[in-house]
Amino acid sequence: MEIALIILHVIVCFILIMVVLLQSGKAADLAGAFGGGGSQTALGSRGAATVLTKATTIAAVLFMMTSLGLALIGSRRGGGSVLDESAPAAQSAPATPTPQEQAPAEPGAAPAPAASPAPK
Length: 120
Description:
Mean pLDDT: 75
Low-confidence stretches: none
Radius of gyration: 33 Å
Oligomer: single chain
Number of strands: 0
């Protein structure tokens, strides 16, 4: 069932991509660039729905339904988060401080000078 739904989802994705790319924009003509276009304005009437707009609507609804179905199947399968399945980080012992990081033994004593690296 899940494989069939994935295959249907991929097919619907390709159909939706093709239908959207085949459509011309609302302001595809030269008048749209200068604010004209008459009935093709953003808030005006759209005119009759073409076959491509109806196909876009159908493909979008099918895409949403298959997406919802895949999400439901994935949530029922168990699993959970990907982060839950990862291996926990190895716990190491706390690092011991270096002599420079240790507090001086006497309250007024200065810390020991750091050793210079050996010349090569």
